[in-house]
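Researcher: I'm preparing a figure for a lab meeting and need a structural model of a single chain. I don't have an experimental structure, so a prediction will have to do for now. The sequence is pasted below. Please return the structure as tokens so I can convert it later.
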Amino acid sequence: MDAASILSNTVIAVGMILSLGGLGTAIGFGLLGGKLLEGVARQPEMAGLLTGRMFLVAGLLDAVTFVGIGIGMYFVFANPFLGQLAAVAG
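Model: Understood. Here is the structure written out token by token.
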């Protein structure tokens, strides 16, 4: 395996990490907002509490995407597979 194929596979993998992370976050926010509206429609007096908890969960949901972005950037800028290739090539 050469460096060009490692870099091309890394780019594809990072693209998948970022796109699937974004898709999962979008689906999560859609479900979260829908459930918030259902809960407020059932019990309007709980709107403040439910909204606060929704923002807490939204922050945790965004954190998952940011971890994926961090992992993707690690593989783009400090690819460990290229170091292994250099060690094997000697």
